[in-house]
Amino acid sequence: MSPYEFIEEILYKKLNTKYVIVGDNYRFGKMAKGDIKTLKKYEEDFAYKTKVVDFELDDGKIINSTDIRQMVRDGEIEKANKDLGHPFKMQGKVIKGAQRGRLLNFPTANLKPSFKYTTAKSGVYFTKVNIDRDFYYALTDIGTNPTFENKEIKIETYILNFSKNIYGKNISIEFLEYLRSDYKFNSADELIEQMEKDKETGRKLMEKYNNKA
């Protein structure tokens, strides 16, 4: 995708961008041919403004998006959030899944992402969910449900202290802490036992984050 196509198709049509905030070495588009001059050139055509900001440093190293994406892939979510300045987030619509969670007494919201996000490391995360501008703490599993031998990666969220039907709603999930890897259990009972432990961990973290507020 050329720099112009990126501006037109992604920034303008898909994201309806009003402000583009970049570092002074920002490059984009095919073969990284786009730069700040390119962004400024098309500001009036696509009704956005470009702002160039100074570099931020982490332990003396310039923070960049490539490193942050790798942190997300590696499960270093707290470090990624620190460098981002806010929690890594996914948005999308809640869809019906296999409903195994409900059968196990752990009903989950299955997310169909609205955008192709960086693939976060498989496993269980402590998260915060935004539903109709109300926030709830939750446990989110990213993975293939190896206990049930699925192949498709799914994003399933068990919302703590919540029982409403939210099928079809658009929600956002903020990833706060990585709890454990995703692995195969020998039985559904073993899985339930671990999920109870995860839930207890989630409740303790909920108290921790509520005390921060």
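the 2nd protein, sequnce then structure:
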Amino acid sequence: MSKETMSTPPRGIISAQEAEKLSENWTNLRKTTNDQVACNAGDNRSSWYSLEDLTNFIDSVKTSHPNANGLRFYLGVDTSVGKGGHTTIFMVPTELNQKKNRSYDILKADGLDDGLAGYPPTAAYPQQ
């Protein structure tokens, strides 16, 4: 990629070492409690989405909701995988509330879920 075609990196880029530390923090602070709630079967630690699905979702949000300004990611529990369920991550589009200068969920908009769980679901970062 030439310098002329390189895009500006998004805000919030973190290094692999920072990602590993965040994952380690989750393990140290949340894993035991989370696993107990998941009936000692271990909970899902990650969700994978293809670039194609993410791009298509963003394109559909831009088309359906021209005032959308971002996406909000939520944690949920998918109970279709068993009694305790597995954590999932879903995303919904947001738009700016001009009066409050805050982004709010677009309530009637479709969200995106159905990312693939890590393998195994309990695997921490990095997955190889």
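Residues 73 and 91 are 4 Å apart (CA to CA). The radius of gyration is 17 Å.
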